[in-house]
Amino acid sequence: MKIKLRFLKKARKYLLLYVLLPILFLNALFQGGFVSWFLFYSFLPFILYCVAFSFYPLENLKVTRELPENGFKVGDPIKVILTMKKSNFFPVFYFLIVENYSNSLQTTNQQKFTKELILTGFKKECSFNYLIYKLPRGEYIFNSLTIKVGDPLGIFESKIKFNIINRFVVYPQYSEYYYHSLEHQNNQASTVSIHHFQRDISMAVGIREYQSGDRFSWINWKASAKRNEMMTKEFEELQSNDLFVIMDCAQNNLFESIVSFTASFLHTVLKKGIQVGLLTNNKKLDSFPIRGGEGHFQKLYYHLAKIEANNTSSIEMVLEKELRFIQQSVSYILITTRLSKNLVEKASFIKNRKGSFTIFVIKEESMVVSESEKSLISIANAHGVRTIIVREGNFNAAFTGGDIR
C-alpha cells in the first residue's frame, strides 16, 4: 500500500511537469510577445532540471561520519565531521542532513545538532562539522542519519537513510594527586612504612605449587625441575601493598563525585606501581581482580565511564558477602558518602581478619559533618579503621589527612 501511494505521488509530480511545460509553450505561442516567451524560456531550464533530478541515484551517495577520537572526558566538546561524496558532478540544489540519535543521546538535555541544510551546487564532495557540548559521563552511539535532497521548485524531494554506527565514551574527570602512605601491618606488630610501593619478598620460608597470579620471578626452578611441576617460593606472611577498592553505588547527588574520586584514586596508585582491584555494588555487582599497569587502569576507567547508581544491595551487605572470597591480605579502600554503625562494624571485622581498612567519605563542600558522624569516625579510628572526610572539589585532601568540619 505504501509503495502504491509513493508511486501515485511521484506520478502526480511528473504529470504536473508535463502539463506546466505545454501550458507555458502554448501561452507563448498564442499570446506572443516578449513576456510570454520570457516566462517559457525562464522556466524551461528548471523544468528540465527537475525531470533529470527525478532520476538522480541517491544510492550512489557515499556518506561518512568521523570522530577525532573514541574517548572524551566530561566537559570536552565533541566534534563530529560529516562528509558526502557524489558519484558524479550532477548539481544537487541542497542536502538536508538529519541525525538520528540513539536513545542514550536523545535523553540528554544538552545542546546538540539535529539537522543541517547544505547548498552543494556542482561540488562532488562536501563536508561540515558540528559540536556537541557538555555530554554527561557514559557510552553513546550514533545510529544512522537521513539525507534529503530536492529541486529548486520543490516539486521532487527524495530521501535515503544511511546506517552509520559510531560509538564513543565520555569518561569521568580525574586528577593525579600525591599519594600519602597508608597504614602498613605485618603479622606481629603495627607500624607505619614509607616503602609502600614495593612488595617485601626477601624472606622466603618455603615452596608451594604454582598458583594463577604468581609472579614469574617467584618460581623456584630447582624445585620445579626435581618435582617435574611448577613450584614457587613461599614468603613470610606480610601485609601486602596491594589495594582493593570498593565503590558505593548508592543513588545520591554526589555519585558523580564518587566516580571522579575513584578514577583519580585508581590513576594515582596505579601510576605508583601499586596493584589494585575494584568492586562496585551496582546492579551487576562488578568485580575486577587485583592487577597493575596502564591496561588494567583503562579497563577500570571504561567501567567507571558506564557505571550507574543502581545498587540492589547495601554496601554493608556487600562487605559481608563478597570480600570473604578474597584470600590474600590486602589494604581495603571504601569510597562512600555515608557512615553507619553497621558499616563501621563490618569494616572493623574485615580489618582484623584480612588487612588494613580505610574509608573515604565524600561530602559536599558546604556540608557540615554531624555529631553522630564524628562519633562514628572516632569509633572507627579507635578500631584501626582510618576514616577520612573528603570534600567535593578538594580530593587532594584525601591523601593529606582529610577534613572533619
Automatic annotation (TrEMBL):
**DUF58 domain residues:** 207-365
Instruction: State one Pfam family annotation.
Output: DUF58
Q: Where are the transmembrane segments?
A: 40-58
* PANTHER family reported for this sequence: DUF58 DOMAIN-CONTAINING PROTEIN (PTHR34351:SF2), SLR1927 PROTEIN-RELATED (PTHR34351)
Q: Which UniProt keywords apply?
A: Membrane, Transmembrane, Transmembrane helix
Would you tell me the protein name for this molecule?
DUF58 domain-containing protein
**InterPro entries noted in UniProt:** DUF58
> Highest taxon of the source?
Bacteria
Is Iron-sulfur given among the entry's keywords? Answer: no
Q: Does this UniProt record's set of keywords contain Secreted?
A: no
